[in-house]
Amino acid sequence: MAKKEYSFYPGCSSQKGASGSNYQVSVDAMCETLDIQLNPIPDWNCCAASIGYAGGGELPRLALSARNMALSEQAHPDQDIVATCAACWLATRETKERLNDDEDLMKETNEALAAAGLEVKADKNVRHMVEVLIEDLGYEELGKHVKKPLEGIKIAGYVGCQTNRPFGIHGESFENPVYLDKLTETMGAEALTTYEKKVQCCGGALAFSEPEKSQDLVKGIIEAAYDGGADMIVTPCPVCQMNVEVYQDQINARHGTKFKMPVVYYSQLMAVAYGSSAKEAGLDGNIIKAKQLEDIAGK
Questions:
Q1: How many Å apart are CA 9 and CA 69, to the nearest integer?
Q2: Which of 7, 33, 115, 280 could form a disulfide with 76 if both were Cys (CB 3.0 to 4.6 A apart)?
Q3: From 1.20.1050.140, 3.40.190.10, 3.30.465.10, 1.25.10.10, which CATH number describes the 4-129 domain?
């Protein structure tokens, strides 16, 4: 398979010590197997997904993502932009769409970027990592590299909001996207195809302002996985992964439940299936240990 190269926007959560740093570890392991080269955008900045809507205004928020695109166009002019974080992908994709659709907004944005000696064209595709896996490689190719099938594990594919609305993955249903189910099955595990909460919001935006509301949403996501007999939840989103994993103790204390559901990234599944160790798959960064994956990785 020929090496495929992409301009890579890592995003804040992927950085060392951040909540999704183990996600990046697993992506690196997965990409090494698949001969995918991710070329980081030099001097990239935050996409403003966390605070950009709070009061900074539309232009500053869009200009942050536009700056990343302009830097990508300089450093990797012939490469699509790829993000692993759902929020980063959504913010950057939205900016591209908005700038392409509004000449005045494009002009304003470039006037802002000119202060830093930059100009954005917004003429390259902005893609989530799962789009690359599905569209550029395909399930058959992904399955060829499986060394340790994830047999005996039943997995609930939790897509969440941001990789599903408003853009979604090409060809997928907004109500019932199945790409995580297909990836799960390609890696040799069993997909919980009837999982009814796969596109429900996890309440990430409410986690600090209204934690009980957020945690009630998470409770439903986890309960549905347990009801379907799932051993773990898999997701493509760092916010979803964190939210659904880290608040289980608080939910247990409030509701008398006994949740201890592992929540992992699709790339962790793939890295283990491709023969990576638990550490190489970033499993040591999970709070609730995915023991079944660790056991397969240790074989």
A1: 9
A2: 7
A3: 1.20.1050.140
